[in-house]
Design a protein that fits this description.
Shape of chain B: globular
CATH topology of chain A: Transcription Regulator spoIIAA
Structural class of chain B: alpha+beta
Number of domains of chain A: 1
Helix content of chain A: 25-40%
Radius of gyration of chain A: 13 Å
Helix content of chain B: 25-40%
Distance between the termini of chain B: 10 Å
Largest sheet of chain A: 5 strands, mixed
CATH superfamily of chain A: STAS domain
Number of helices of chain B: 4
Shape of chain A: globular
Low-confidence stretches of chain A: none
Largest sheet of chain B: 5 strands, antiparallel
Oligomer: heterodimer
Strand content of chain A: 25-35%
Low-confidence stretches of chain B: none
Mean pLDDT of chain A: 94
Number of domains of chain B: 1
Chain lengths: ~120, ~140
């Protein structure tokens, strides 16, 4: 497995899906940060991040989401987290992020958060 | 019953080494027969500590090495991280206000927050011009 793979795909309703595979730590977070910044630069502020393929997340990875969320919401968008793995969920819980982020169980559910 | 284990690892002061540290901790957890659910948390605390050391090191120090020693006994998991970079005292870092970080689009202090939340003891000793020692303990 590569350290972090990020795939991007436009869904309906101007929502962008980002699929992550690998781990999100201080070594890899900039790759995701660049992808999200690129979407924002193009005016795409509705983003779903699929975390089901992420085996490990550290504060640098969670910090990418924290850094992007306010900007997305300032532009009437959102950054929705999709199906975090148990290890990732534990870190989100420790940081108290489950009260701040919308977390979806399916892509369909994630898309309803934007309507 | 947890099996007593003492291991050590040395890595370069670069984020590429974080994956190696996580694998090292996973191997210790398996070998010591600790509860597996502690693995993710303890690994996270150690990963955050090393990330902070790397982040605060001078650029020219990145060829230096960090040494990590782990001592597991039936009652405690102890890790000591030695480095010779800039001093970095976690006690000087304030607890983050996540809502404020979101509002301001910033991040910071999350790693130290996690270290303190997960581990029962976090102690830092700075030997000026020689080395820094960060000692963290989790009671089992």
């Amino acid at each position: 497995m590569a350290d972090l793979e990020v795939t991007s795909q436009q869904c309906s309703g101007k929502v962008f899906y980002l699929g992550l595979k690998g781990f999100l730590d201080a070594h890899t977070f900039e790759r995701l940060e660049k992808t999200i910044s690129g979407l924002f630069a193009q005016g795409h502020y509705r983003v779903v991040v699929d975390l089901s393929g992420v085996g490990y997340i550290g504060s640098a990875g969670a910090g990418v989401f924290i850094g992007a969320l306010g900007k997305a919401r300032d532009h009437q968008g959102d950054l929705v987290l999709l199906t975090p793995s148990p290890a990732v969920q534990e870190v989100l819980d420790l940081l108290g992020l489950c009260q701040i982020f919308r977390i979806a169980k399916t892509l369909d559910e994630a898309q309803t958060f934007f309507s | 019953m947890v099996t007593a284990i003492r291991r050590d690892l040395s890595i370069q002061l670069q984020t590429e080494g974080l994956q190696k540290v996580r694998a090292f901790i996973a191997e210790i957890v398996r070998a010591s027969e600790m509860e597996e659910n502690l693995q993710n948390r303890i690994t996270l605390a150690i990963d955050e500590a090393i990330t902070n050391i790397i982040k605060h090191a001078y650029e020219e120090k990145h060829q230096d090495r960090i040494r990590i020693t782990v001592d597991v006994s039936p009652k405690r998991f102890e890790v000591v991280i030695y480095d010779s970079g800039c001093s970095f005292n976690p006690k000087e870092v304030k607890a983050p206000d996540i809502q404020q970080l979101v509002r301001e689009g910033r991040r910071g202090g999350l790693g130290v927050f996690l270290m303190r939340k997960i581990m029962d003891e976090v102690e830092y000793v700075f030997h000026e011009g020689v080395r820094n020692e960060l000692r963290m303990v989790k009671y089992l």
